[in-house]
Design goal:
The protein is of the alpha+beta class and 328 residues long. It folds into 3 domains: 144 residues, DNA polymerase beta, N-terminal domain-like (DNA polymerase, domain 1); 104 residues, Beta Polymerase, domain 2 (2-Layer Sandwich), CATH 3.30.460.10; 64 residues, 2-Layer Sandwich (Beta Polymerase, domain 3), CATH 3.30.210.10. The strands form 3 sheets. Strands 2-4-7-6-5 form a 5-stranded mixed β-sheet, sandwiched between helices. Strands 1-3 form a two-stranded antiparallel sheet. It is globular. Keywords: DNA damage, DNA repair, DNA replication, DNA synthesis, DNA-directed DNA polymerase, Nucleotidyltransferase, Transferase. Pfam families: DNA_pol_B_palm (PF14792), DNA_pol_B_thumb (PF14791), DNA_pol_lambd_f (PF10391), HHH_8 (PF14716).
Length: 328
Amino acid sequence: MAAALENDYKNMIIEELDVMMKKSRNENDRFRALAYDKVLKQLKNMDGPVHTYDDLKDITGIGSGIEKKIKEILLTGKLQVAEDIKEEQAASLSLFDTLLNIHGIGAVKARNLVEKAHITSIEDLMEKSNKNPKLLNAQQKVGLKYYEELLERIPRSEMKKHEKLILKELGDSAIIVGSYRRELADSGDIDVLISESILKADDLKKTVEKMQKSGYITDVLALGSHKCMAVVKLPATGTKKEGKNPEKHRRLDILLTPENEFIPSVIYFTGSQKFNIEMRKVAINLGYSLSEHGIKKKKDDIPDVPVFKKEKDVFDFLGMDYVEPKNR
């Protein structure tokens, strides 16, 4: 019995359930995929090993099907159905995941591309989309065009250049959130928040047009009154004599938030996910809900929620010590 407790099955459970989630997504079984995803996120964020099923008592959303699979892993060290999938559908699942990495392509479209258009690779998709302009929509074509570049992480040194250019256009009140604000070494994309008290919804379109004219925004994927999704590229570096060094295309999202939601949004989109979960637990224990839209009362006999002027106000309201973004 003592020897068995030495085995930590957490990574194996994550690996096998991840295979099952991808299979469900591939079959467009959205609800089952979401169920796996919910459990997987909690497993990845949990501290400590998994020796027995009792170690998962704090994981929510484990239905009977997932429970049975976890117990099989704990008993045998593997999930046979997942192992079979790895052998039989490795190529298909890999291609499906690859297609999902293209901006604008979701589960249904990826499945149709594989099963109906008989796409076998990114190169094959490029060739067939050139022959058939209706195969992909405008967003998907942009995502495919810059596929390799958009997959690459953005070094912090480059993020600083984007920040300088973005703040020049949007003003110093705009905040780049996510891993950049947490001072990590790289970022997946560029997420910018700005309050509607600074930039009105009517002015977003004008600002985007200005950034297009400057050449910074190369492609607009979507533009509404409160959000812009775009592809951007820094100006090429180097002299004309030396030869210009082209910069890479990156994803940019600009989000306008109501003034009363701005500070909670900054906290939420700064992350990390694990920190947000812990903060949400504190709010729930006090009788509030917490999201990117703010703190809301869930009970009548608790204090009203004030308008927060800075992040520390939120921490103080929840009775938490302030945590710098780099430590979240």
